[in-house]
Amino acid sequence: MVTAECEMGPEHGRQKGGSMWRNLSKYAPIFLLVALSGLIFLLRNIHTLENLKCHTVSTLYQFQSRIHSAFTQDGPQVLYHNHTYCGHLDQKPSPEYTLEERYLLDSIAWPEPPARSTLVPLRQTSDPVHSLFAILPTKEGREWHVGDQLEALIQMHDFQGRPKRYGGDFLLARLHSPDLGAGVAGQVLDHRNGFYSAVFPLLWEGSTLVEITLVHPSEAITVLRRLREERPDRVFFKSLFRSGFLSESTVCNMCLPPGQQPLCNFTDPHTGEPWYCYKPKLLSCDTRINHAKGGYQKHLISNKEALLFQSGVNIKVRVLASGTDRVTILPKKKDQKEAESSSMKPEPIKLIPPGYYFEGSWRPLGGVTMYQFNESSAITQCLMGKVINMYGDSTVRQWFEYLNAFVPDLKEFNLHSPKNVGPYLAVDSAHNILVKYRCHGPPIRFTTVSSSELRYIANELDGLPGGPDTVVVLSIWAHFSTFPVEVYIRRLRNIRQALVRLLDRAPGTLVVIRSANLQALDPEVSLYNSDWYSLQLDGVLRAMFKGLDVLLVDAWEMTLAHHLPHALHPPPAIVKNMIDLLLSYICPGKKTS
Predict the structure, then answer these.
(1) What CA–CA distance (Å, rounded) separates 511 from 470?
(2) How confident is the model at residue 115 (pLDDT cuts 50, 70, 90)?
(3) Domains detected in the chain
(4) Which one-letter DSSP state was computed for residue 139?
(5) What's the predicted TM-score (pTM) here?
(6) Residue 196 contacts by C-beta under 8 Å, 6 or more apart in sequence?
(7) Which of 41, 219, 364, 448 could form a disulfide with 355 if both were Cys (CB 3.0 to 4.6 A apart)?
(8) Which helix (H) or strand (E) holds 252?
């Protein structure tokens, strides 16, 4: 047939060839799609070609990534919106722990607005401008003495000026005297009908101001609660996997949806703390080299919900007084003790805060003696022969940085650690002082932490010998605000068990826990790190370690009572008072000034 076709001449062959090409051109897109699909299939399964050299695999994989990115959407995959799954992942609590968890969750239960099928319009939500408070008179009239309690009644209104009929607003209360450098936090009681009471202990003489602040309206709390339970992925993490010339970054978190793609299981074998990453396409799970914050999910709430989070409107806005917001506190009555002992009428329970500020210095109550460590030599004398182990987030790293900067004899040893990540170590060999800091395990929102440096606090505590010259300082709260509370309970339970073991084998070990603190909020920060999240975690923290031989630095009260603006990392004046309290715990008998 070839000969016959040739004998017909070149012109006939060209006509026939052109006709064939026109027919084939109709199917060209189909052939191209099939070829591209085959190439993608080949590249997706390229790991089976074991004889390819590493640099060849890397080149093909980069090409695959470009093709793959054209057909897939960027960003992390959404997690399961199920708080039970995230809260109890890889762990079945015992009946005892289940009961404890229920008690802890009940202890931080927050009043909810009446059930509605639709979102409440902004005009019907709590408005600090239309709301007001009034200082209530005492039994003797409008006269207050040191040792009394002052009460203010708060009534919340909506943006139309109408009284609210239900509670759940997040309010802060403070009593302060700027001229005296004095301040104390008040206790807010929700009557669940639109009215709130703020109660303050009167601890110093002079003119004093009452300050009430709306942090979030109750309707915003409903949104924050939903985000906490349904969107634990709103802060996501990544890890880099590397082997030779080949590297890949995948999304990681405490809970990832199974079944979508293979997972690497990095659950800690000792504590059972879960952590997962999506498995790299070409590399094995044991090639992970680091951990890092991936980013923040955006567009978490609707436009209507966003109206509930407006700076200067309903995020940390003052509620004004209907009359005066100032009272004058008189000296303590001389016959107060006699009057109290002779009176048969029951008195209300006295509010005893952990402490208050006076002349800029924190004065703890409840039997703790506070000393001022104003000279570096006094700190050196206190810490002589001590090993200070600091574990946790950046708020306790701030303490390490303070000591390292204030005490010249402490020399930081260069561990070539990433800035603001650690681990850190400072030594004063002349006075036998060692101060260490290490961040807690995931979730930790630091830039990049080497996988080898990811340590869980419970495991670190189990490795300490302890003893009377050992101090343990813990701060763990800020990085758990985006997860269901059950996740935090599990982490604290593991730490508590390790502390019990440490104190059993070394009873003289001093353990100090730093609580959560208030911070600056804007519409975006509120969705991830709201003070309401911190308050909830702080309630769990205090209940979890109650009865254990540990001491507390109450950062919540110390930031609320102070006149300086709230900040995630409190300003030096507040940190100085925190360090003074820590050192007063370490050296209770060494008065310095």
Answers:
(1) 9
(2) confident
(3) 83-93+228-303 (no CATH), 125-223+307-338 (2.60.40.10), 371-586 (3.40.50.1110)
(4) T
(5) 0.84
(6) 153, 154, 155, 156, 167, 169, 171, 188, 189, 190
(7) 364
(8) strand 246-253
